[in-house]
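Running this now, will post back.
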Amino acid sequence: MYNGPERIDRGGIASRDPGRKVVLIPMRALVILGLVAMAVSASAQSPSSDPIEPLPDGQSSRPGSDVVLEIGLAMPTGDLTDDFDTSELGFGAGNGFELGFRWRLHLGDRFSVSPSFHFTDYDDFDGFYLEESETKSELVAAAGKTSVYSFGLEARYALGEPGSFWRPFAAVGAGLDRNRLHGWRKEFTEAVDLSVNSLGLNARLGVRLDQFELSAVYRYSRFSTRRFFESDESPDYVWDAVVVRAGWVMSL
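Update: finished.
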């Protein structure tokens, strides 16, 4: 049955039923959608020439940073450990403990830098001095304490592959040491609490085991001062130390 002429919208699809609502889709839009669909399909089916391999667990595609909490056994050398009574510049210090932390910024897979702070408290010197008065003389116990506050910057180079469980490393550092004496002058003539600032250098060898570090450090600390013991000149002091250190690494 003939229902009249077709109604054709320009660039669209025809409808013979004037009472039926028809959504017209322009032919140009259909062509564009078809071309886009073909391009997407071809791209999805073509294999990539450089597949992306997943990184090891805990590793990022860009360098990150760590916070390291450290504790160590500090073994003094030089004037620190020389006998207080019998040596000219000795402090009679014994082995002590070290506490510290650092923020390590990774500049690549192997190289990093880290500002740090460490506090070293050596074992006290325990001695006696003779206190005399008009009526009596007696031996009085006296203690001498030596400690060091170290503010430093360390450069570190690690071997091995990133993400591996075992990674040896070597590091060097420099900074400011605040060397403190809290005790007595020679022959117990005066109780003092004095500090001297000096340049501190250190070299470190160690290994990282997953989230822990073990290392050995040699600390080089030399300075001249007249503050600690009475002298006409400024004697040269050697406050070097060897530290065995353990660290807990927290990645940020």
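The longest strand covers residues 137-158. More later if anyone needs it.
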